[in-house]
Structure formats: C-alpha cells, structure tokens
Specification:
mainly alpha, 4% strand, elongated, single chain, 61% helix
Length: 560
C-alpha cells in the first residue's frame, strides 16, 4: 500500500474538541464543546506550503477529507484513494470521522460506521503504522476513538509504549492523551501515569489553573498514587494562590475529590485551604460541588466544622424552596443530599436547619434513592433522631439495604445499622437480609479485633495509671442488652473511658462508628469519654507524668 509513505506535519487541532481540556467543563455539563467550522479549517489548510507537507498529494487528500460532509464520503475516499494515502491522511481520516459522528449524534449511524469494513480497514492501517506516528498523531488517534466511543484496546495498547518514548509537544496535547486513555479504562497503568507525572511536575509552575485542575482530575482517577504530581500540584495551587483566588467553585470541588481519592494524609494543608474556600464561597457553590468537598473531608477524616456548617446552610436554601413548591430542586441529585446528611452525622455536627428539611425532601423522592444513599441516610437518621420523625421513610430505606451489591462496600456500617435497629427501632417491620447480616458480622468482628474491647492493651494501661492515681476502675464491663463492652469504668457510676481509633485526624473528636456507639451507650445511661489511641500511644516518648496529667484533665468531666 502507498500508505507506507509518511508526511511530516502539523496536528489536526481543529477537530479535537471533544477531548480538549478547555472544553472539559462544558462536556461535563452535557453541553457540546465549541469547535471551529470545517470551512475555517479548510481555508487554513488550502495552501499549507512545503513547511507543513512534504508531498502535495498529502495536502490535497487532507483537503478532500475536510470537505466531506458525511461519513460515507470519508469511507469512500479510503477505498478510492487508498493507493495514495499517507500516514498523515490516515490520522486526518479518523479525526474527520470522529468530528462528523459527534456532530451527527446518531447512535444508530455510529454503530453502522463501527461495523463498516472500510472503517475496519482504516483501523488495520493505523495498527500497521503505529511505529511511524509521533506523540501528537497518537494522541489524535486516541481522542478520535473517544469521539467515536470506540474502545479499540488493541490499537490503544499498541500505542501505549511508543507514547512514553516520544517527545511531548505541549501540555494541552499531553492532557488530551491522558484524558483519552483514562476514558478507555487505562487507570491502572502505573508506568503510563508515572511517566506523565514527572512531566507535569516539571511544568506545574507555568501551567494555567484550569490545566492543573484537569490534570488533578485525571491523576485522581488513576489507581496508583503519583506523589511527584500531587506534591507539585499542591505547591502550585497553594503557593501561587490559585486555589484561594482563581479557581471556580466547580474546579475547587474537582481538586477536593482528586486529592482525597487515594486517602493520603500528606495534603492536609491543601485540604485546610479548601475548607477556607468552602467557608467563604459556600453560597456561590452548587449543592453537588458542596457535596464533593464534604465527601473529601469525610474520606480523609478531617473535621472542618465551619466549612461543613457553611456548606449545609447553603445547601438548605434550594432544598427548602423545592420542598415548599413540591418539585425537584434543579441540579440537586438525591445522592448529594444523602452525602450531606451522612457527612454531618459522621462528624457529629448538628444541622437542625437541614436535617428535617432534607428528610422531608427525600420522602417525596424515595423511589430515586439508591442502595448506597439509603445506607448513608439511615445512618444519619440514627444519630439525628430522624427514625422517630420519619418512620415511613426509614421503612422504605431499610428495605433497599441489601437489594443490590452496594452494601458489600459498607459491611461494617450495615452491621452497625442492624445493631441500631435492635437498640433504637426494633418496632420496624423489616428485617435485614441474612447475607448482609452474616457478611456484616464478620467484617465488624475483624474491624474490632473480636467481640470485646478492640484495644485491650491500651485499656489495661489506662486502668493501671488510674490505679496509681488512686482512682477506682473496672476493666471490660459488658453492657446489658447491647453488643458493647466498656473498656474502663471509673468509680461506681456509669462513667467510662473508651479507647478508639475512629476519630478525626485534626481534632481527635469521635466520628463514624465510634459516634454511633457513644449514642447507643448514652441511651443506656452511660457517660463515656473517648481516649484516642493515637494520642495515648504518643505519650510513650513524652515526659514522665504526661499520661497522668491527661487522665486528670479527663476526669474533671466526671466531677459533677
């Protein structure tokens, strides 16, 4: 075939719109990204000159392809002019097909195109000449496959290693390439992401804020954490004050999601800046954006109470209006409302202005609540008293738990909800499915290291210190009619210390399951104080008497 000839030349930039980082916001919102008309492209390519094309035939073929208004015309050229096609023309052809398919937005026509033997011929030619492609050409092919919604893994995989050996012309092209491979599901290619992480780290000081945000989104979706990239991105976002002054609320939420994706604790400073931005700009943010930020704080167990309160107050405004008008709030998903309630309950932040309003709103849309959202809402209801005020909603939500497979990611929480049913709402006419109960019990058993105290050595150390102080104490006291065992009971009353590791990392306040356990014990008449295990262990290298002074400060809470 004459396709073995190759031409040096420029990239096909005008038809790359679907993968452009600058159009990522419009694409995410369901809008069609802006594109230059093909007539403008044709005028620009009418007389490219010898500096662009090594052969005039290659230029003429590109002009013929750009004039095509239908995919059938492009496919016909692939056959009738096959003998004079250059490799550059193959790239142009697949880009034109991608642009035409995007403009037509016809699924049936797209399916017919992908099954056409002439399209298959084009793919086979591209497979054959992958070694002759430069980085820009391979990026254009990958982006065109994305426009065609064709995950051709053979072609994408064959280009993967050559991509790492080619010179990257610019940051925009690099972002387009990673975006296309991320769309195709190549999120576990550690070598691929590590290679580009180094390049991004080198260019982060000069990258625009929107480019850094797009890169954060892509690397946040990767399976492996790329330290080089995230450290450089944090320096750029915080050091250049992009986060505080230049990013839009949507971009702030994307950064929050990306930096919490791998559960790394080394970016707390950036998360603190994010919390300040949320506190300041909560009323400018959409509910979905607030939910993304609060999810990030919850995933990293960072309690930023002013930011959470500001986000909850701002979210209550559209919910109140929608509930009063008995209609759906624009742009507010049920899962986002569930995330807001779960986050507030997880940190123990009371939000009376939102809780009742959100539960009323969800009561009208209960059919749209998914299984994971049902778990989150039920947990929040257990801690906020919603089980008494919205019993009908509780019944519908409890029926959803275990109906699918989402519960398998929350086995410990599901078992905690079963315990809550036994202790708080045994009257509910619904039983948890046996598979959920069995799997949840095993997960809860492993999480607590048995059925008794999860940290017996630390509890004995606390009891020994209390004994040295002359304070009467008892170890591992079971709570009647409850699945709990109190670690250290002080005195003759129901005063106790609990050693726990499930606390917020920045304030050491109890969160999550520990907070639910305290709620259950309080209903049984117990007054418990949590001793953070990490804090207790940190006293080992502290001056003598540090533990005693710490316990004395805690005992003052029991003085009354």
């Amino acid at each position: 075939s004459s396709s073995s000839s190759s031409s040096s030349g420029v990239g096909f930039e005008g038809l790359r719109s679907a993968a452009d980082p600058e159009d990522a916001t419009a694409a995410a919102a369901g809008e069609v990204p802006g594109r230059r008309p093909r007539s403008e492209l044709l005028d620009a390519w009418a007389d490219p000159g010898t500096a662009v094309y090594a052969n005039p035939i290659c230029s003429q073929l590109d002009q013929l392809l750009l004039k095509c208004e239908e995919t059938e015309e492009v496919l016909a050229l692939l056959v009738t002019h096959r003998g004079v096609f250059f490799v550059h023309n193959l790239i142009t052809a697949i880009q034109v097909l991608g642009a035409l398919a995007t403009e037509a937005n016809d699924i049936m026509a797209l399916n017919a195109l992908l099954r056409d033997p002439r399209y298959d011929l084009l793919i086979r030619d591209l497979l054959r000449f992958v070694p002759k492609l430069d980085f820009l050409a391979m990026a254009n092919v990958a982006c065109s496959l994305r426009q065609l919604d064709h995950k051709h893994y053979v072609l994408l995989s064959r280009m993967l290693r050559p991509l790492l050996k080619q010179h990257v012309p610019d940051t925009t092209t690099m972002l387009r390439c990673i975006q296309a491979y991320n769309w195709a599901g190549y999120s576990s290619q550690d070598e691929f992401y590590a290679h580009f992480a180094v390049l991004f780290a080198e260019r982060s000081s000069t990258m625009a804020g929107s480019e850094i945000v797009e890169a954060c989104s892509l690397f946040g979706d990767a399976v492996q954490y790329q330290a080089r990239f995230f450290e450089a991105a944090e320096r750029a976002l915080v050091g250049r004050e992009l986060l505080q002054h230049q990013l839009t609320p949507r971009e702030v939420s994307i950064v929050a999601k990306a930096f919490s994706a791998h559960l790394r604790t080394c970016h707390d400073d950036l998360m603190g800046c994010l919390a300040d931005v949320v506190t300041r700009d909560a009323y400018r943010m959409q509910v979905a954006e607030i939910a993304l930020c609060l999810r990030a704080f919850r995933r990293l167990a960072l309690r930023f109470e002013p930011a959470v309160r500001a986000g909850l107050e701002a979210s209550s405004v559209p919910l109140r209006e929608a509930w009063l008008l008995r209609r759906r709030a624009d742009g507010v998903a049920v899962a986002d409302v569930a995330a807001l309630l779960e986050c507030a309950a997880f940190f123990g932040i009371k939000a009376e202005h939102l809780t009742g309003l959100a539960l009323d709103y969800l009561d009208d849309l209960v059919d749209e609540v998914g299984e994971q959202s049902a778990i989150h809402i039920t947990y929040a209801m257990c801690l906020t008293g919603g089980i008494n005020t919205h019993s009908r909603l509780l019944l519908y939500l409890f029926r959803k738990i275990g109906a699918g497979t989402a519960w398998e990611k929350h086995k410990v929480r599901v078992f905690q909800l079963w315990m809550s049913q036994q202790l708080q709402f045994p009257w509910l006419d619904c039983k948890l499915r046996k598979r959920c109960l069995d799997g949840g019990l095993r997960a809860w058993f492993m999480h607590r290291r048995g059925f008794g105290s999860p940290y017996p050595e630390e509890a004995r150390a606390i009891a020994a210190e209390l004994q040295a102080m002359g304070v009467q104490s008892r170890l591992f006291v079971p709570v009647p009619d409850a699945p709990y065992e109190v670690d250290v009971v002080v005195g003759d009353r129901k005063d106790a210390f609990l050693v726990a590791s499930e606390v917020s990392r920045n304030s050491l306040d109890p969160v999550g399951g520990t907070l639910l356990q305290l709620h259950h014990l309080k209903a049984k008449g117990w007054r418990c104080i949590v001793v953070p295990r990490r804090l207790w262990l940190s006293f080992e290298g502290a001056p003598a008497g540090s533990r005693r002074n710490y316990l004395e400060s805690l005992l003052t809470a029991f003085a009354d």
